[in-house]
Specification:
This protein has 3 helices and 10 strands, in the order αβββββββββαβα. It is mainly β.
Length: about 150
């Protein structure tokens, strides 16, 4: 393998939909709104390249794609500590959602981070902030993910 790609990032093994396995470079991890983890990957494939002198050669070329995390396995000896991760902010395990203002009800709703219920109008908060919000009459816990159950031990 070309040294340029050896240093590109940690390698992993991806299983393609047809069952083939492919060694790939891990470039990122993303957690989608539905709670699923996806890996951002690059497969180093061969592309035809035309040189200035007119010759055509085969050159390694990275091709970016995504796969669900359950189809990607680590390769022993590789470190994934430096892989950029989106969707899992350390210490921010809860969401507070802004609701349409109601006359008698709460204007915000508290959710666990993996809840599928919140709208786009939300922000991540720490566990300590979530505990404080549970005692705020303007905030209601979600009746789908029940963040108050996870917060009982805090």
């Amino acid at each position: 393998m070309n040294d340029r790609y050896a240093a590109a990032g940690p390698w992993a093994r991806a299983t393609l939909p047809d069952g083939q396995q492919l060694d790939v470079v891990v470039t990122g991890r993303t957690r989608t709104r539905d709670g699923r983890w996806w890996y951002e990957l690059e497969a180093v494939l061969v592309a035809r390249t035309r040189l200035p002198d007119g010759r055509t050669v085969a050159e390694p070329t990275p091709v970016a794609f995504s796969m669900p995390a359950d189809r990607v396995v680590p390769i022993p000896g590789e470190s994934y500590d430096a892989v950029p991760t989106n969707g899992a902010v350390a210490g921010r395990q809860f969401l507070v959602e802004n609701l349409w203002r109601t006359i008698d009800g709460p204007s915000r709703r508290l959710h666990r981070r993996d809840c599928w219920q919140p709208s786009a109008a939300h922000r991540r908060i720490t566990t300590a902030e979530a505990v404080a919000l549970l005692h705020n009459p303007d905030v209601a816990p979600c009746d789908i993910c029940h963040p108050e159950r996870a917060l009982r031990r805090h």
